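TEACHING EXERCISE
Course module: macromolecular assemblies
Task: Read the component lines below, then compare them to the predicted structure of the full complex.
Student: A.B.
Group: 4
Components provided:
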Amino acid sequence: MLPEPIHLKLELEDETVVGVTPIIGYIYRGIEKAGELNPFRNNVFLVERICGICSFTHALCYCEAVEKLMQVEVPPRARFIRLCWSELSRIHSHLLWLGLFADAMGFESLFMQCWRAREIILDISEMTAGHRIIQSTSIIGGIRRDIDKEMAKEVEHKLSDFKELMDNTVSPTVYNDPTIKRRTVGKGMLSKEQANLLGAVGPILRGSGVPLDIRQTGYAAYKETGFEPIVESDGDCYARTIVRLREIYQSRELILKALSLMPEGDISVTVRGNPPEGEMIHRAEQPRGEVVYYIKGNGTRNLDRLRVRTPTFANIPPLLTMLPGCELADVPVITLSIDPCIACTER
Amino acid sequence: MSLEKEVVVDKAELIPEVQNLLAQKARYCSSTCLDLGDKFEIIHHFQLEDSVDFTKHIKVRINKEDTLPSISNIYLAATLCENEMQDHFDIKIIGLAIDFKKRFLRAKESPEFMLTKEKKEEVSP
Amino acid sequence: MPWMLPTIWKNLFSRPVTRRYPFKDIREPFSGYRGKLHFDMEKCNLCSACAQLCPSNAIVVDKEAKTLKYNPFACIYCATCVEACPRKAITMDTHYSPPATVKSEETCRP
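Instructor-supplied answer key:
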């Protein structure tokens, strides 16, 4: 199952793939242009809709880019809560992917368990932010909802339920199951040098042994909570699965840490005026990898240019080098292993 | 405010500069194209191997009817960004590794969607 | 796959975890959920602050005809209007907008 509108033109020799051309363009929505026509404050809701899964990270990255350009200092509490929400979106994105990946290799019951665990995370999102996926809680200057102590306790409680469910079903299966290993180990190899040269991002890059994660730059509150990227060195589909599985656990730890370290105080500052003339580039780590926002202001309430480089866009060239040489039956598994999000890619 | 660590190069210096970065094992991040009115500005963003921050932004300014040398033969990853530029801004890029011939994001029958700034018509007094 | 067996065994005898929306077993929404919009037209003075800030243009205020038109199918439930209203005339409840067969607009008059 590949629920994404991408067309891969494969050239085959018997059962082996020898060449591949990607064809995209089925869901282009012109968000970059719409970002120029909209007032910059409304763009937050626009960029959230680039992707249905990593929507909060899009909003976070856009807000931080505009705040950097306007030289606004966001209250520390807002930065910590932003971290919590972006990690929640990472957990549910990875679980969604793991479910689809299991489904792609015909493992229906693992798919069900992943999505069942994901439901707990979505409930936390709904409880804290008001909506399950497209939260609309990040605004320029801070956030709109606070997580008070009672709610933080409830979140911790739900996260421990979540860990129990993961420990009992999903992770032992992924670590031990021979079916998963036969479908993924040694498939879609990408070496460290290739990953670097082709500009791979996110779990694909870290699955090939490159310790690069944009969270290391310390945006939001990652500097305060501390962060170490998770790296696997094998560079095959299985390594990418393990990177994502370990990131789920790491994200849970990060949320708990952020909730305990969170300082008291305001959650937003009022931002007046328009973005000044100038350009700014900002990056954030989405579940799928690095997202790059380039904005150019011109002193009015509309931006001069909004450019978004989404993670799947950068991961298509590595996919093109992974596919040649594999068998036709492995194409869905390898394609899904980059966690494709074509809606992101085309914007 | 402008980008830190930006380098403005000429069209002819672009390829040697990028090859230089390849020798330093830089990672290609993204490309951005801007319409400055009478010129196009293309920015290539790179990151060096041993740092997590952005390392270099290479800016090229070209006239609107000029061609741009492609860097996709050095960094294959740039080919998608350059095809996108070709779609959005109608820039002529030479030497693309995979050339979709302006059909990267749009189909044959889809309408034009340019990101170029429209020329403001001067109102005669 | 012995590690999945206890779960499968348990699931065989327990109730389904899914709910039969929209017929029964619907979970109560959380208290902070941003649901349906309500306009209190007694408080509203048609200042159109909500209409100006709405990111999806779901609210249209016509001062001459003295009406406020709200399109729930364009609304993205971001609660910008709730925060912007100087007279606190807009409130949100915690329920989803029900599915509908026809896209309709609401017209409110003071």
